[in-house]
Amino acid sequence: MKRNTIIGALAGLALAGCMDTSNNREMTGAAIGAGVGLLGAAAFDADAGWTVASTLAGAAAGTLIARNTRTNQCAYANGDGTYRTVPC
Of 83, 82, 81, nearest to 73 (Cα)? Predict the structure, then answer.
């Protein structure tokens, strides 16, 4: 099962690299992030719950990174629960 998971994640990452255009950068980031999360869960022999959680977290992180690179804006915490957005 672990081998199939790793093969599936690598195939997904390869396909995500083919989709990278300016219009769907966030979708590509989500696909790559999900693949990385899935590979991480497989590497640590995580159970099904952790595999889903790490895949979703990877997808969310990939989306945010792609969005920040598209707009060249990054959010920084002020320390009081608020954020400021400035160029990266």
Answer: 83
